[in-house]
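Discrete fold record:
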Amino acid sequence: MVEFGGTAAVSGDLEQAREQLHAISRRVAEAAYAAPRPEASGWHGLAAWAYQRSLEQLARELEVAQQLLRSATDLTDAALYEVGEHA
């Protein structure tokens, strides 16, 4: 049988990680909300095209970041559950 010494310490570390993930998730969501909108540019021609592509890339990267943070939070929750089950 596996000995789970220090379960409280592991649980505390996981709780802290979850809090940090939630804080980072809020910051990324705020960044996505505050990102400039394409229609507000005033750019024309090649500059407008470059601006549009940059904003699209930014939106994609922020969405990926949000997905990865949700996944990390879910996995942290699962780890907390498992640690609690073996306490």
The two ends are 13 Å apart (CA to CA). The longest helix spans residues 45-85.
